[in-house]
Amino acid sequence: MSDHVELRSGAYADSVTLLQISREVQQVPGVATAQVAMATPLNVEVLERMGFDVPGEASVNQMVVAVRLEDGGDLATALAAVDAALAGNGRTAVGTSEEAPPRTTAAALRSTRLTGGPDPLVLVSVPGASAAVEAMDALESGSDVMVFSDNVPVEQELALKRYAATRGLLVMGPDCGTAVVGGVGLGFANVVSPGPVGIVAASGTGCQQVLALLDHAGVGVATAYGVGGRDLSAEVGGLATRTALARLDRDPGVEVVVLISKPPADEVARELTAYTESLDTPVRLALLGAGRPDLTASTEELLRALGHEVPTWPVRGTTRPAAGTRLHGLFVGGTMKQESEVLVTAAGTDAERYALVDFGDDEYTTGRAHPMIDPTLRLERLAEVAADAATGVVLMDVVLGHGAEADPAASLAPAIEGILPPVVITVVGTARDPQGLDRQVDALVAAGAEVHLSHAGATRRAIEILGAGHD
Amino acid sequence: MTEHVVSVGVDLLADALADQAAAVTRVDWRPPLRSADGLGTEADLATVALDPLRADANAQALERMLAVRAMLVDVLPAHEAIGLERGEFLHAGPPIAWDRASGPLRGALMGGAVLEGLVDTPEEAAALFEGGLHVRLEPCHHRRAVGPMAGVVTPSMWMFVLEDPATGARTHCTLNEGLGKVLRYGAYAPEVLTRLRWMGDVLGPLLQRAVRASEPLDVTAILGQMLQMGDEAHNRNRAGTLMFLRDLAPALVASGADPADMVEALRFVGGNDHFFLNLAMPACKLALDAARDIPGSTMVVAMSRNGTDFGIQVSGTGDEWFTGPAQIADGLYLGDYGPDDANPDIGDSAITETAGLGGFAMATAPAIVRFVGGSVPDALATTRRMQEITLGENPRWSIPVLEFAGVPTGIDVSKVCRTGILPQINTGMAGRLAGVGQVGAGLVTPPEEIFPKALSRLAELARARADARTRA
To answer: Which residues between 51 and 70 in chain B have a beta carbon less than 8 angstroms from any beta carbon of chain A?
Structure first.
């Protein structure tokens, strides 16, 4: 062992840098230990405790280089390492100067606010248990929010909507699948042209059906607000619906508003009727349920009210006669299932002669993507019902638009090709949807399906096929 | 106008917006922290987010805190300043008894007992504290004080007295002893006690004369200037110390005291880069104390460690401490010391981070991140990361390199739980054994479990208020 201690005048480096340099020099082969430090009383004390002999004239403005060499260690190598460390330390930029993405909605809104511009809209699709927290960030910053997430407790929905109502903000959702705002489709939304219709929908796929029918009729949509399936319940009381209606009423481009929902709770219906009567813009109701017009019929009435011709809703392809006696409805849209249920029941079909499943229901989506994105579960069920001799007809929906599967026919067409039961499909989509409406319909027709744009039409046709087969 | 959408959650939905040429800001959302027993914090987070008091309470807490100006108005012995009685010992961190106290805290208490003449030797002091009959331990925070490292305060120690002129509220802190073998790092050797006696006999009275003869020193304003000069006011206080000397030297010289004493005092203060820390800390506490006790506020008003436990106090939960095990800092060691020699995190000095300084102001003092091998971009990223967990910025304390952005201020318990980002603390490291002193310096964070604990209490209080509203 041998010690080397030198004082360097005029040399200075930060104490942290020097600690780091000391550590680097300690790693040099042949060096037992080393300290490079400014000669402060503390550092001199530390060096002395380590056994180094520091010259008495050391002053705080001098740098001490103290190196203890192992036997055979080379002093020149050690000192070269000190100089290299002093010269180079920290000069090469490491780490990234790129800013990390925001971790909360509040942080994202703070950064966008700094750059100016209007308040952004916030789209929340985190797991339901965390959705209210992100949504509250949006409202507190003065932004509207669309909550795509489901499984949000109703008391949280109520709290968010009450907060929003006092500030003129809109909470779309929770479990809001579709909206069209400022020409942009949010969630699962079809590409539509601007036009005179304003939509407020408590049903995402219901809204999409109306968008698709209006698009075919050549009528555009100004704005479609979703409000979430529970908004018109007695508990929530239509808080978001009122705000959405008020917004559309203020928009001079909106000539007529259509409200798509399950029938509201009685109390809510009374209040809402009174409210809509106070507005300047006419509000038409498209309420889903037994004894009420289906969405296609409601859309036709809307077109007539606008003075627009009602087109023939397209049907493509032909299908085989029924094989067995049972109608299987396999849906990705909750409203599609519901509408079929109303029509099947109204047609007097026995309960054991039909089975309707919504693959978008919580029981199929917990821990999985929505069937509009991941078709696996429905395709599995399709194979089962196709192999079942009792199956008379299969009724399905395919929903196009932003957010949905890029090419649903690619997996569905091969699955229906060559199966025994006839297949009737509603393709809910517009001409400019990214999946290509015609391309999707062509592929399904080629695989042997009969394809409708109107889901009520498709359902009636399936009932008809089933009845004909039975007879 | 292009629609601007902030998307939090499923990437596919953000992609769909980008495909439509909407401007999309994506949030890098992750599941929130879990509590120590593995339960999710989602329900508590929602309760607190939807608590109608929270937003206004937090705005008020931040506003009150930022309104405080800390003026140095006096220097007094602790028995006069805060009425500390013989046998009373203040210490850093949440409450703790001798049996759980760490080495450096024990060492400092032992030294303090000798200083006060309660015992003749540090060894006898151990028996005194074990007996516990004639001594009483209490956190500094419970007596309007803060103490760095062990934070031991005894009646004869002189303290800075800081006051907010608008309210007359006061906080206190002892005078800084310097680095190395010092009481606050748990050393109690004869030279430690000799220095403390000189500080009590000479330095304290001198500073008192100088402070009383000067205009009150605006510590809040000096902190603002320090940040422009590369100090983050926790591990670097060099510019602040020099400004303190600049402002006080004329009155000190004019005081007519013994020139030899004055020379020694000036040399002592000028030779101790950390002297200003003991002014920065009570200034931060004075500001944060103004934000205490606002129902519904999720703002942290104290972060503090006693060498065994790390504790936080939150505005909306009163004086309750939420504690977990103090961590060992990651950093660089003096001389031959290594991680085995270090005591877990200790000191009230994390009050600086609680107020937006220290690790939160890392961008202005990039040298500090080199304790852990970091770089300048890491320092900038640290301050930006702290913006994620804070309620706002402090316009008085700005950071030039971040376009003069104010330091991130007001740690939000909710945001910590949501992001899992823990407050970054810059700290010194004490030796594990009593009597050793400082062994290094580095970076540390609180134990993550204390934030879900505090959140759970905030949620419980919010639910109780909601129930009361429902009944009413």
So the answer is: 52, 55
